[in-house]
Specification:
It is a single chain. It is built from five helices and four strands. It has a two-stranded antiparallel sheet. Helix content is 56%, strand content 12%. A hairpin with a 7-residue loop joins strand 3 and strand 4. By secondary structure, the protein is an alpha+beta fold.
Length: 124
């Protein structure tokens, strides 16, 4: 396999989850929902950006709020101001720590993943 073939391959992805037994506390999907809420101020818009229904996004928010000692997302009901959602201080800290862990895991894993990637079938 030539060097140009290796550089043309997409970068391998590392997916990180904080999990105990079979219960996921935070992973890529939940972090992306938090990120979307932080960026848009809306659970519905965060879900749309991720291709998920409001109900799915809301259920992830409810699960995270129940899992952590303090809620990660504060939701305001609709009305004249239209409602909305925002990350709490804890939510911001959890999202930041998760993103830092993702970056560290990706950097640590990349040399080994590249060695594995070299052994993939061409076109895989």
């Amino acid at each position: 396999m030539s060097l140009s073939t290796l550089t043309d391959q997409p970068t391998p992805r590392v997916r990180l989850r904080l999990q105990q037994a079979d219960h996921i506390f935070i992973g890529p999907g939940r972090a992306d929902v938090l990120q979307g809420i932080a960026e848009t101020g809306s659970i519905a818009e965060a879900g749309r950006r991720l291709g998920m229904s409001y109900q799915r996004a809301w259920s992830l928010v409810q699960a995270m709020n129940a899992d952590f000692a303090e809620p990660l997302v504060d939701k305001q009901r609709g009305g004249q101001t239209g409602g909305g959602a925002a990350l709490t201080d804890t939510g911001q800290r959890v999202l930041q720590a998760y993103r830092e862990a993702e970056t560290a895991a990706r950097q640590a894993a990349m040399p080994a993943l590249r060695r594995i990637q070299k052994r993939l079938r061409s076109g895989a």
